[in-house]
Write a structure and sequence with these properties.
Length: 307
């Protein structure tokens, strides 16, 4: 049995929670979970602390529970918001990560696991070729450096998972197909295409086959599996993706097979035109196809509209 602390138990964290061993003792720290707390506790029991990670009482959690594993999932993840609020992005993604990493070291946590991003790359996605083009990627890369520094010559090992485009599901238990009532508001492409009949493509003049950005989409449950597997490794940085690129335009077409969607062009965003995971160093287990991701996303939106 392990004692596991999760910071930020929202989209990815909720799916991770369902994949952890039932015998593990779980502690969740989150700013707020609203009605999601009741939903999550239908599936398993855990300790919950409603707190901001900058609060001093976070150390009390480490002192009392002495976690074996820390999953640091919390962060400021909107590319647009990071560009607008650079000081906030730096504090949330860098300084908070420093604090949680140092607490993990000081309280002898065995394993620290951090969710980073493919936004640390520009053209090449080979580990070692980092070149972020936006504030979000730059702050996450800075956080990675802090993690490596904090745990150097430490008893705590770390895993840094660079997540590519985590795709919408919110079906917490894929075996039973039970939906999880998490946040309805998100800017994710799968959420927008599932919920709306109008869609804006930000940028159609990229150097790609159809002019729209190409991304590597991976199911959120595959990400949860990768997070769980990382508990057994030591001091690693891995890309978490499918190694298959799909353009925004092609994603739209997949949804248009199921529903009517009108498309307009919007202003481009400061981002790389093409990011596909280089998994030559380590390939994660992948169980879900892109078509299954689209189907689960549509099913979840059907569930939300029925509430």
């Amino acid at each position: 049995m392990k004692t596991i602390l999760i910071t930020g138990c929202n989209y990815i964290g909720s799916h991770l929670l369902n994949q952890l061993d039932v015998n593990d003792e779980i502690i969740v720290v989150n700013r707020s979970m609203n009605n999601n707390l009741k939903v999550l506790r239908r599936f398993r029991d855990f300790h919950f602390f409603e707190a901001d990670l900058k609060d001093s009482k976070i150390e009390k959690v480490f002192e009392h529970y002495k976690p074996d594993v820390v999953f640091h999932l919390s962060g400021y993840i909107s590319v647009k918001d990071c560009e607008k609020n650079r000081d906030v992005a730096y504090f949330e993604n860098v300084e908070i990560t420093r604090k949680i990493a140092e607490l993990s070291r000081d309280y002898y946590v065995k394993k620290f696991i951090f969710t980073s991003t493919a936004s640390v790359y520009n053209k090449s996605t080979k580990i070692g070729d980092e070149d972020p083009v936006n504030v979000y990627g730059a702050t996450k890369l800075r956080a990675e450096g802090i993690i490596k520094h904090v745990f150097k010559d430490s008893l705590t090992s770390y895993s840094i998972l660079r997540l590519f485009n985590v795709a919408r599901s919110n079906l917490l238990n894929p075996g039973v197909d039970k939906p999880l009532g998490l946040t309805k508001k998100t800017s994710h492409i799968f959420k927008k295409l599932s919920a709306d009949s109008n869609f804006v493509i930000n940028g159609t003049n990229h150097k790609t086959s159809d002019g729209t950005c190409v991304r590597d989409y991976i199911h959120v449950n595959d990400v949860a599996f990768a997070l769980v597997d990382s508990m057994d490794s030591r001091d690693e940085i891995i890309n978490v993706g499918s190694s298959v690129g799909t353009s925004v335009q092609d994603i739209v077409k997949k949804f248009q097979r199921h529903k009517y969607i009108t498309v307009k062009e919007g202003p481009p965003i400061n981002e790389s035109p093409k990011l596909i995971a280089d998994t030559s160093q380590k390939r994660i287990k992948k169980f879900y196809s892109l078509d299954e991701i689209v189907k689960s996303s549509l099913n979840f939106e059907t569930y939300l509209t029925s509430l």
